[in-house]
């Protein structure tokens, strides 16, 4: 294997877990790599931890919190200025990686048309449980993690083609990023990895899953899994991803599919121990619902820009609507499989 890899760790307020992340990232058996920490203006001392305790890692200190997409793009741009950089590898700061994690990621990227590679992510506090084994797509612009919360019994331990990689731990080939661009900065956070996966696929790139590239992840250490803000940006970005990347025939069909999905999700949430009802809906339920509706409102307001991106991206598309239909059959997920996080 050859080619320099830049491991980009985006940090914000990560003092409790950045040490473990960097110790493991700096102890890889791959021959040629650099570790870059992009700090999103942390105020908890984690920036000083990186500077003082890990001089082997390069630190890019941003003047303000640019969130995930823009912060990671700053890291991509820094890495790609190195002419020897062949791979840009993203890694959450709330992770610990195995010693052969990086070499296992690079190995499948040697194939000519592989533009991205997904790691096998396990829950740090429950290492027998899967976090993700790549992305599966839905017909309404969203995605779910392959293997989400399943017990890891080796059922995913094969090098296979997947739709795309989760941004928690993923490798991107330099030439693939140069062909389709970086994360969409307008997404800010959440689903930017899915949008990039779609752009890569539409331009003819493939994605692989590397089961021996193992990552232990402290899930949602930076944000609550059911936070209104996460709900807001996820719903907004789902609609933008749909409009920017799906063939029009599937955009038209997305509305009914999404409605059925939401009804199914509401039914699964209607348990007393999830959202207790006492004279009306719980405050948490109302907050999440309001965030969901606000996300839709802002997504619709941003449609002119999303349509302009769609037009610009059309020049790099090499696949047909029929190809996308085959993707839904191969990498898609049904209504009953949608998890409620």
Polypeptide structure, described:
By secondary structure, the protein is α/β, with parallel strands linked by helices. The strands form 2 sheets. Strands 1, 2, 3, 4, 5, 6, 7, 10, 11 and 12 form a 10-stranded mixed β-sheet that branches. A two-stranded antiparallel ribbon has the order 8-9. Strand 2, helix 2 (46-53) and strand 3 (58-61) form a beta-alpha-beta unit. It is 40% helix and 21% strand. The chain is built from 11 helices and 12 strands. The two termini are 38 Å apart. It is globular. It has 2 domains: 4-217, Alpha-Beta Complex (Spore Coat Polysaccharide Biosynthesis Protein SpsA, Chain A); 228-317, no CATH class. Helix 6 (192-202) packs parallel to helix 7 (228-245) and helix 7 (228-245) crosses helix 10.
What features would you highlight for this structure?
2 domains, about 350 residues, 10-stranded mixed sheet, Spore Coat Polysaccharide Biosynthesis Protein SpsA, Chain A, two-stranded antiparallel sheet, alpha/beta, 11 helices
Fold topology:
Layout: E1 4-11, H1 18-25, E2 33-39, H2 46-53, E3 58-61, H3 67-80, E4 85-92, E5 95-97, H4 101-106, E6 114-123, E7 126-132, E8 135-137, E9 143-145, E10 160-162, E11 169-173, H5 174-180, H6 192-202, E12 206-217, H7 228-245, H8 248-269, H9 283-301, H10 303-313, H11 321-331
Parallel strand pairs: 1-2, 1-4, 2-3, 6-12
Antiparallel strand pairs: 4-11, 5-12, 6-7, 6-11, 8-9, 10-12
Helix pairs in contact: 6-7, 7-9, 7-10
């Amino acid at each position: 294997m050859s080619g320099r890899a830049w491991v980009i760790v985006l940090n914000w307020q990560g003092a409790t877990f950045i040490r473990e992340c960097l110790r493991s990232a700096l102890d890889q058996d791959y021959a040629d790599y650099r570790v870059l920490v992009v700090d999103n203006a942390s105020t908890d001392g984690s920036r000083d931890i990186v500077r003082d305790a890990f001089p082997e890692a390069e630190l890019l200190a941003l003047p303000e919190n640019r969130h995930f997409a823009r912060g990671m793009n700053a890291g991509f741009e820094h890495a790609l200025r190195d002419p020897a950089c062949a791979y840009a590898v993203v890694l959450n700061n709330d992770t610990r990686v195995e010693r052969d994690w990086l070499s296992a990621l690079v190995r499948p990227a040697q194939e000519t048309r592989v533009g991205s590679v997904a790691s096998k992510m396990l829950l740090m506090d429950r290492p027998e449980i899967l976090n993700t084994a790549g992305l599966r797509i839905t017909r309404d612009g969203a995605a779910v993690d392959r293997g989400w919360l399943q017990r890891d019994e080796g059922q995913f331990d094969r090098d296979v083609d997947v739709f795309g990689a989760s941004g928690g731990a993923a490798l991107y080939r330099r030439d693939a990023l140069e062909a389709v661009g970086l994360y969409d900065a307008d997404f800010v956070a959440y689903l930017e990895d899915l949008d990039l996966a779609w752009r890569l696929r539409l331009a003819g790139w493939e994605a692989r899953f590397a089961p021996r590239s193992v990552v232990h992840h402290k899930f949602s250490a930076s944000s609550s899994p059911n936070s209104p803000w996460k709900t807001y940006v996820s719903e907004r970005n789902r609609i933008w991803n749909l409009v920017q990347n799906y063939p029009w025939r599937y955009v038209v069909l997305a509305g009914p599919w999404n409605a059925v999905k939401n009804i199914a999700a509401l039914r699964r949430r209607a348990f007393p121990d999830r959202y207790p009802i006492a004279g009306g809906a719980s405050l948490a339920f109302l907050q999440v619902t309001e965030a969901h509706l606000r996300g839709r409102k802002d997504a619709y307001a941003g449609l002119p820009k999303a349509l302009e991106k769609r037009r610009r991206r059309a020049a790099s598309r090499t696949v047909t609507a029929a190809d996308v239909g085959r993707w839904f059959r191969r990498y898609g997920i049904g209504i009953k499989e949608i998890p409620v996080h």
